[in-house]
C-alpha cells in the first residue's frame, strides 16, 4: 500500500485557504517547505541568535508569547530534530510554571538586524540546569515582510533597575501608550494536542506595521490589521479552531515586556478594512489578563528602518483620515503644494497634500479636479494623478499649455493652496493579470503610465509577485521627455519585469542609442511589432488625439481586440474605434423648454444649441465643469423633471435623479412635440 502523506496544515488553516481559493496551491507548496526536521541553515541560524520567541499554553488553556535570551551562543543543536536552549524564563513570565515534559512549544527565531526569521514547532523532552531540550516536529522559513530593521545592543544587567511584575486585567495608561506606539509585536496561538494533526501545539508569529497599526478601542480591546502574507494562515487558522491568543509587546528602548492573553475574533467583513492601507482583513483581541514585566531585558534595539512592505501599509490615524476623505471626496478642499519638480522643459510636477492628513483612495489612471481664479475668472481643470495609490502624497504633472497650466507653472509656489476634488475617472488600471500589459504614451500622456508603473512595482513588493509590464514612451527629444530617471529606476527595482522603451522623434545627435533612448523616429505599426509577440495584450494608451488614433489603428491591425485597448486623451477625445457603440436608443428632442430652477430662468432649446452645459453658459450661467466628457462629475446637477439623453458614453457614476450637464441633451418625449426639463441650477 502507498503511504498517505499527512497534510502539513490542520483544519483551521485549510478552512481559510479554501475561503480565499488557495488550497491546492498551498497544499503543494506546504509539502515542499514545511519539514519535520531543521535544514542545516536553520540549525546554524538558531545557534547564533541572542534571543528566541517562545509560545506555550498554560494549564487553563491560555496561550502566551515569551522571550528567552542568554549570552550567545545559548542555543545548540546535536542533530536536525534536536534543540537545546540554555536559558530560563524571566521571573513573572507564565512560561516559568509550564516547562513540563511533553509540553508543546512554538518557537520563532528572528534576527531583526538582517530581517531573517524561521519557525519551529517542538515539544519538551527534558528540562535541566543546562536548559530546555526540545524535539522538533515542524520547521519552516518565513519571508522578511513587515519586519523592521533593528540593531541590537546588550547592556550590563547589573546596571538595570530592579525588575518588577504587575498583573493586569485591563490596559493601564503605560500599556496603551506602548501598544499605540509599537511597530512590532508577537502573537501566540494554540491548537490543543488532541487534534490528531502534525500541526498541533503552540505557535508564535511576528506582526509588524507602522507605529499606530494596533488600535486601542477601550481598556480591554485591540483591533489589528492582517496583511498579505504567505497564505499558510498558521495564526489565523489556529484562531478558527481556538479563539484564545497571547500577545507580547517589547519596549525595545527600555527593556520592558507587556505580555497579554485573551480571546480573539476574526473580522472578515469589517467596514474599517477598506480604509486601512494594506489590510486584507482585521482581527480583534479581548484581554483576559496579562503582566507588566519591567526592567527585565538587558537587550536594547535601535530602529534603523522600516520594511519596504511596512511602508506600503497604513496606521489607524491614516485610516481615520482616509475615511474622512471618502466622505468629502465630492467637496472642494484646499490642498497645499509641498513640492514642485521640473520634469522636462515643458512639464512640472506639483506635489499636493490634502488637509488634515487625508489621503483619498484612488486607482492609477484617475485624475484630480482643480479650481482656481485665473485672470479674475473661475477656472476648473482636470489633471491625471502621476503618483501611485500607496504614495503619501498626490502628484500631478502638468504640461505648460493653456490658461490654467500657465497659472500653475508661473504663479503657484510651494506653500500655496489650491481647491481640489478627490480623484475620479474611468481610465483605471485593471490589475487582475488576465493578460500581459503594455502602456503606450506620448508627451504628457506619460502621467497615468508613471502612476501605473509605480503601482505595479509597489504591488510586486507587497505581494512578492511582480507583474510583467512593457512601457513604451514617445517624446520629441530629451528636453521634453519626462520621468526618464524615475521609470528606469522602477525597471531596475522590478528586476527587469517592468521593461521601459524610449522612442524619440527628434533625438539629439550626442545621445547614445541603447543607453539614452532605444528607437529613432515616430512610433509606428512596424515598431510596435518589435514589442508585441502576440495579439493578446491589455494596452493602455494616452497622448494627443492624433497619436492615439495612429496607435489604436496599428494595434487593431496587429490583431489586438478593441475591448482590450483602453484610452485616455486630452480634452474631448476624437478617437474613432472600430466598433463604436451607440450610447442610447432614446432619440434627441427636436425642441425643448428648459427651466433652471435656482436662477428662475426658462429658455427654449434646440439641438444646435449644444449640450445642457453649453446651453447654460450661453445664457449667462456659470455651472462648474471639468473634463467635459462625462468622467469627473464636476458638472453634476439634479434633474427635477423631464428626460435627458447623453450624446456620448459617460463613466461617472450618478444617482437616479442626477445628470452630467457636459454630455446631456433633452430627450424626445413620447406623444409630445416639445420636451420639458427642469434642472436644479
Could you name the key traits of this structure?
681 residues, elongated, 18% helix, 12 helices, eight-stranded antiparallel sheet, 36 strands, Rossmann fold, Elongation Factor Tu (Ef-tu), domain 3, alpha+beta, 4 domains, seven-stranded antiparallel sheet
Could you tell me how far the N terminus lies from the C terminus, measured between alpha carbons in angstroms? 81 Å
Regarding quaternary structure, how should these chains be classified? single chain
| Unreliable parts | 580-584
Number of DSSP helical runs: 12
Q: At the fourth CATH level, what is the homologous superfamily of the largest domain? A: Electron Transport, Fmn-binding Protein, Chain A
Shape estimate: elongated
Strand content: 35-45%
Fraction of residues in helix? 10-25%
Largest sheet: 8 strands, antiparallel
The CATH class label of the largest domain is Mainly Beta
How many strands appear in the DSSP assignment? 36
In CATH terms, what is the architecture of the largest domain? Roll
The number of domains: 4
User: Could you say what the CATH topology of the largest domain is called?
Assistant: Pnp Oxidase, Chain A
Radius of gyration: 31 Å
> Taking all residues together, what is the mean pLDDT?
91
Helix and strand content put the structural class at alpha+beta
Q: How would you characterize this protein structure?
A:
- The chain is an alpha+beta fold.
- It has four domains: 12-316, Electron Transport, Fmn-binding Protein, Chain A (Pnp Oxidase, Chain A, Roll); 328-424, Elongation Factor Tu (Ef-tu), domain 3, CATH 2.40.30.10; 437-569, Rossmann fold, CATH 3.40.50; 592-679, Roll (Ubiquitin-like (UB roll)).
- It is 18% helix and 36% strand.
- It is built from twelve helices and 36 strands.
- The strands form seven sheets. Strands 9, 10, 11, 12, 13, 14, 15 and 16 form an eight-stranded antiparallel sheet that branches. A seven-stranded antiparallel sheet has the order 2-1-5-6-7-4-3. The chain has a six-stranded antiparallel sheet with strand order 21-20-23-18-19-22, with helices on one face.
- Strand 5 (104-111) and strand 6 (116-128) form a beta hairpin.
- Helix 1 packs across helix 5 (234-241) and helix 8 (446-463) packs parallel to helix 9.
- The termini are far apart.
- The relative contact order is 0.07.
- The model is unreliable at 580-584 (pLDDT under 50).
Amino acid at each position: 500500500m502507498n503511504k498517505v502523506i499527512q497534510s502539513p496544515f490542520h483544519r483551521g488553516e485549510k478552512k481559510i485557504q479554501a475561503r480565499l481559493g488557495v488550497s491546492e496551491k498551498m497544499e503543494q507548496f506546504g509539502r515542499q517547505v514545511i519539514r519535520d526536521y531543521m535544514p542545516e541553515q536553520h540549525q546554524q541560524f538558531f545557534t547564533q541568535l541572542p534571543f528566541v520567541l517562545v509560545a506555550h499554553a498554560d494549564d487553563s488553556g491560555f496561550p502566551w508569547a515569551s522571550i528567552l535570551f542568554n549570552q550567545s551562543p545559548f542555543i545548540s543543536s546535536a542533530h536536525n530534530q534536536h534543540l537545546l536552549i540554555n536559558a530560563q524564563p524571566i521571573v513573572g513570565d507564565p512560561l516559568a510554571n509550564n516547562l513540563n515534559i511533553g509540553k508543546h512549544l512554538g518557537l520563532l527565531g528572528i534576527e531583526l538586524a538582517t530581517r531573517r526569521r524561521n519557525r519551529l514547532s517542538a515539544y519538551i523532552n527534558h528540562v535541566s540546569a543546562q536548559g530546555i531540550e526540545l524535539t522538533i516536529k515542524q520547521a519552516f522559513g518565513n519571508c522578511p515582510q513587515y519586519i523592521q530593521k533593528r540593531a541590537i545592543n546588550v547592556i550590563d544587567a547589573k546596571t538595570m533597575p530592579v525588575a518588577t511584575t504587575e498583573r493586569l486585567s485591563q490596559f493601564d495608561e503605560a500599556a496603551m501608550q506602548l501598544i499605540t506606539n509599537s511597530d512590532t509585536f508577537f502573537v501566540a496561538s494554540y491548537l490543543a494536542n488532541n487534534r490528531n494533526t502534525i500541526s498541533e501545539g503552540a505557535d508564535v508569529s511576528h506582526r509588524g506595521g507602522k507605529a499606530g497599526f494596533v488600535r486601542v478601542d477601550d481598556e480591554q480591546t485591540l483591533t489589528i490589521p492582517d496583511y498579505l502574507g504567505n497564505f499558510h494562515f498558521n495564526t489565523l487558522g489556529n484562531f478558527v479552531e481556538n479563539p484564545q491568543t497571547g500577545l507580547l509587546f517589547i519596549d525595545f528602548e527600555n527593556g520592558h515586556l507587556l505580555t497579554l492573553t485573551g480571546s480573539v475574533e476574526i473580522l472578515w467583513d469589517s467596514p474599517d478594512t477598506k480604509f486601512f492601507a494594506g489590510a486584507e482583513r482585521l482581527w480583534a483581541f479581548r484581554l483576559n489578563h496579562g503582566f507588566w514585566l519591567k526592567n527585565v531585558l538587558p537587550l536594547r534595539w535601535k530602529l534603523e528602518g522600516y520594511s519596504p512592505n511596512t511602508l506600503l501599509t497604513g496606521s489607524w490615524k491614516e485610516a481615520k483620515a482616509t475615511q474622512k476623505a471618502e466622505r468629502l471626496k465630492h467637496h472642494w478642499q484646499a490642498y497645499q503644494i509641498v513640492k514642485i519638480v521640473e520634469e522636462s522643459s515643458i512639464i512640472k510636477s506639483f506635489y499636493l497634500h490634502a488637509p488634515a492628513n487625508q489621503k483619498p483612495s484612488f486607482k492609477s489612471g484617475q485624475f484630480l479636479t482643480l479650481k482656481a481664479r485665473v485672470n479674475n475668472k473661475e477656472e476648473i481643470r482636470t489633471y491625471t494623478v502621476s503618483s501611485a495609490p500607496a504614495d503619501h502624497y498626490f502628484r500631478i504633472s502638468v504640461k505648460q499649455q493653456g490658461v490654467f497650466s500657465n497659472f500653475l507653472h508661473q504663479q503657484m509656489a510651494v506653500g500655496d493652496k489650491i481647491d481640489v476634488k478627490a480623484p475620479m475617472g474611468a481610465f483605471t488600471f485593471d490589475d487582475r493579470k488576465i493578460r500581459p500589459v503594455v502602456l503606450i504614451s506620448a508627451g504628457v500622456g506619460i502621467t497615468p503610465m508613471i502612476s501605473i508603473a509605480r503601482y505595479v512595482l509597489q504591488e510586486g513588493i507587497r505581494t512578492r509577485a511582480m507583474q510583467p509590464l512593457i512601457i513604451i514612451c514617445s517624446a520629441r527629444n530629451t528636453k521634453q521627455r519626462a520621468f526618464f530617471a524615475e521609470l528606469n529606476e522602477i525597471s531596475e527595482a522590478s528586476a527587469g519585469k517592468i521593461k521601459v522603451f524610449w522612442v524619440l522623434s527628434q533625438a539629439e545627435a550626442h545621445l547614445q542609442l541603447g543607453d539614452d533612448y532605444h528607437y529613432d523616429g515616430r512610433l509606428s505599426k512596424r515598431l510596435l511589432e518589435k514589442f508585441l509577440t502576440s495579439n493578446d495584450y491589455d494596452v493602455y494608451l494616452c497622448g494627443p488625439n492624433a497619436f492615439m488614433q495612429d496607435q489604436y489603428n496599428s494595434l487593431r491591425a496587429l490583431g489586438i481586440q478593441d475591448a482590450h485597448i483602453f484610452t485616455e486623451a486630452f480634452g474631448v477625445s476624437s478617437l474613432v474605434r472600430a466598433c463604436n457603440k451607440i450610447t442610447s436608443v432614446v432619440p434627441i428632442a427636436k425642441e425643448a423648454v428648459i427651466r433652471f430652477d435656482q436662477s428662475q430662468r426658462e429658455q427654449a432649446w434646440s439641438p444646435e444649441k449644444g449640450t445642457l452645459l453649453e446651453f447654460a453658459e450661453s445664457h449667462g450661467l456659470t455651472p462648474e465643469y471639468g473634463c467635459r466628457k462625462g468622467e469627473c462629475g464636476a458638472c453634476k446637477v439634479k434633474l427635477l423633471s423631464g428626460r435627458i439623453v447623453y450624446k456620448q458614453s459617460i463613466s461617472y457614476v450618478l444617482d437616479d435623479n442626477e445628470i452630467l450637464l457636459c454630455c446631456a441633451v433633452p430627450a424626445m418625449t413620447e406623444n409630445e412635440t416639445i420636451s420639458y426639463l427642469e434642472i436644479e441650477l
